[in-house]
Amino acid sequence: MKQQLLSKIExxxxxxxxxxxxxxxxxxxxxxxxxxxxVLGFDTDQQKLDKLAAGRSxxxxxxxxxxxxxxxxxxxxxxxxxxRASEADALIICVPTPLNNNREPDMKFIINxxxxxxxxxxxxxxxxxxxxxxxGTTEEVLLxxxxxxxxxVGKDLFLVYSPERxxxxxxxxxxxxxxxxxxxxxxxxxxxxxxxxxxxVSRVVPVSCTRTAEMSKLLENIHRAVNIxxxxxxxxxxxxxxIEILEVIxxxxxxxxxxxxxxxxxxxxxxxxxxxxxxxxxxxxxxGICTRFIELAGEVNTAMPDWxxxxxxxxxxxxxKALKGARVLVLGIAYKKNVDDMRESPSVTxxxxxxxxxxxxxxxxxxxxxxxxxxxxxxxLSSVEINEHNLTGYDCVLxxxxxxxxxxxxxxxxxxLIVDTRGVYRGCYPNVVQA
Length: 435
Fold this sequence. Notes:
Blueprint: H1 2-11, E1 15-19, H2 25-34, E2 38-42, H3 46-53, H4 64-72, E3 76-79, E4 90-93, H5 108-117, E5 125-129, H6 137-147, E6 157-161, E7 180-184, H7 187-198, E8 204-207, H8 210-241, H9 245-252, H10 276-286, H11 292-318, E9 327-331, H12 346-356, E10 360-364, H13 388-391, E11 396-399, H14 408-414, E12 418-420, E13 432-434
Parallel strand pairs: 1-2, 1-4, 2-3, 4-5, 5-6, 7-8, 9-10, 9-11, 11-12, 12-13
Antiparallel strand pairs: 6-7
Helix pairs in contact: 1-7, 8-10, 8-11, 11-12
């Protein structure tokens, strides 16, 4: 079976099935199709599939042109019918892994995907999980389900874990030129996984097992979460001491070794950084280990929106205005600049806290024209146009996400008060407060 599958991969006659066509699955789809593979996309959202079939994109940072080219070449077919899993030679699972209300891993999307394809699996396939998760997921969640069907993993079917490394909006690194870690359940599984990804990425990094691959992804994200927590804490210290934190970071960054700059903000956003560290803290408790360092960073980062709200209140008070009843414009509500990704955006938390304190809140974000329905929040709002007239109607403009398409000079000239959480403005301006 292995040689037949490797031959299909080498000859590019293998059909690549991708389960979940979101921020991870769609770029992967385009990478495989660009390399000449036929891709079968699975998603429960028919509207997504309809847009792809029409050659259109539903993610702003991904243009329509490569999608249209893939469709025109006959290399893409989308479906909500998971019985078609038997048509694919490779099945790559790219579904969300959120936290539940108790901040514990919510594995339902992975489990549901596996259960959906399980009756239709056949010998000669490879299954790869890309969703970020805790070490042991591949062996403890996927492998037993395959074995329950009498499937001999490593002989009949091959199972690997290869964590996604997507960075939406990154102009320099994409799926194809970002090295890809891959771990296999058996050595033969690893060989197949390396062959599969080796056709679409510049470098595959094989590791000894799936648990190592799973942990490597968590380390990447925990590294960022902890360092962002550190610099967020230092921001509060520097603010209290009358020191400009961004100037401190600029100065430290001149050291050519031993220092990597991280920048403060109003909190953490995106699917990875605010969530993934808690997958490890949850799993570590099974071994009687308390991950105090990781949890402390989480506490610092989670508290940042409250600190920002305090800065808004103080800035308004200094101008004889209470937050209750004030008109506040939140500028930028995506979780980071130049993307339309709203997952875990701290901007939304800021909006919620402002409203609960009695402020009248609007937002402006060219990437998010209408506020989307979210699990925890929903506001019946649309993006407000930024112009001289509109700006003068707000008591405060809160810069929460610093998209590049904003005219920040015009905003500074006409806004009454600006609270800047992203370091857009350097220097002293009478109407700008750093937060």
